[in-house]
Amino acid sequence: xxxxxxxxxxxxxxxxxxxxxxxxxxxxxxxxxxxxxxxxxxxxxxxxxxxxxxxxxxxxxxxxxxxxxxxxxxxxxxxxxxxxxxxxxxxxxxxxxxxxxxxxxxxxxxxxxxxxxxxxxxxxxxxxxxxxxxxxxxxxxxxxxxxxxxxxxxxxxxxxxxxxxxxxxxxxxxxxxxxxxxxxxxxxxxxxxxxxxxxxxxxxxxxxxxxxxxxxxxxxxxxxxxxxxxxxxxxxxxxxxxxxxxxxxxxxxxxxxxxxxxxxxxxxxxxxxxxxxxxxxxxxxxxxxxxxxxxxxxxxxxxxxxxxxxxxxxxxxxxxxxxxxxxxxxxxxxxxxxxxxxxxxxxxxxxxxxxxxxxxxxxxxxxxxxxxxxxxxxxxxxxxxxxxxxxxxxxxxxxxxxxxxxxxxxxxxxxxxxxxxxxxxxxxxxxxxxxxxxxxxxxxxxxxxxxxxxxxxxxxxxxxxxxxxxxxxxxxxxxxxx
Length: 482
Prior knowledge:
- This protein is α/β, with parallel strands linked by helices.
- It folds into two domains: about 1-250 and about 450-475, Aldehyde Dehydrogenase, Chain A, domain 1; about 255-435, 3-Layer(aba) Sandwich (Aldehyde Dehydrogenase, Chain A, domain 2).
- Helices cover about 40% and strands about 20% of the residues.
- Helix 2 (about 65-80) packs across helix 6.
- The model has no long low-confidence stretch (mean pLDDT about 95).
């Protein structure tokens, strides 16, 4: 049991102004995992006030970048000792297999913290540019108070993707985690406390949609950084637009994996287990549209079905598990509804589609494969957020690109082939923020984000830091004539 009686606001653990609590239950056993306060609107106001005070009334935004980088170093060192706990919490809160939770959800945030700590040495925060008659001093200044809103499917990593560059920039942050997975964010508060971040630089207010809207619309918040569904992203974009407030949106996806006729089938199918079934299919960048050359279509489907049916489904804390439960009953109901939609639309269900035998408790869905999917079907166009894959045949490279780009989304993708030059030509034609060749990964030094309904702005890399800065130009005295 992980019980957090208080909220972390202004560098202190303080009681909520309300009595409601958010309870977290294991999606595997349904047992109670822990609880946190359900932040009220007044709690959000207090957190924003604390962040506002730290930004407006202390020297935090004006410190040398090296000093803020040192704060990231302290965070990193305090974080490392809690890696096993954070991995466990991801498995217990949202069902991620522990063998995936450890490297991605728990360890990758260390790499992000380390990247931004070191970026301070090379990033140009201020430069003088020669001009016509006078020089200009161009300064990159912190944007202010950041409202960071994160989802349940990768909360620690997604929080650090916002917190690390915001701290380096000199911003202050109010973090609102999802009610499905708030426990690890409270651990981040403990880490910030141990690292002695200045009071108000980092605040945590778990809550639902009401707390989120209060944060987004608060006059004391200068920027919103959101990761979550496209529907919620549209709402946040509208609210920020009305207020002319800066916003970064990392939203949904329906990414395509393009399997060319010369692909190594065994290697490709093994790779798709980690790019398509990743996080039990509950990942915005999951490759759930599998575009397959007609020349190898039948053999590919056979291989994919064989691997899918061999996956070990079960307790996410068991190291042997490859696919865990979905986060909630509601999520399982949604995925099962999409399976029925696929059947109704005429797609061919070749594997899975039901609930695993022997697992009578928990929100489980079998790894599911549909074949002969038309790209116009709902199961090919809408984000299902579960272990449901759609196989779509194509005739040549041009058709593969056309199908890949025929989507409201544009977040991620992969190309699978033994010809690297062909793969690169193809990858550059796909409209997506990220794409991999024979694998998919996220590098802290490279920007991540999408186009169209997958969002606006970028996280990670120097581009991720730039999202928390604005450019200020100071015209220097005119040059004297000689």
